[in-house]
Amino acid sequence: GTPVGGKLDAKKVFSRLSSAQNLQLGGTYEFAVPQHQLKFFDRSSEKRVEPRAVSWQ
Question: Residue 1, class by beta-carbon neighbours within 10 Å (0-12 exposed, 13-18 middle, 19+ buried)?
Answer without folding.
Answer: middle
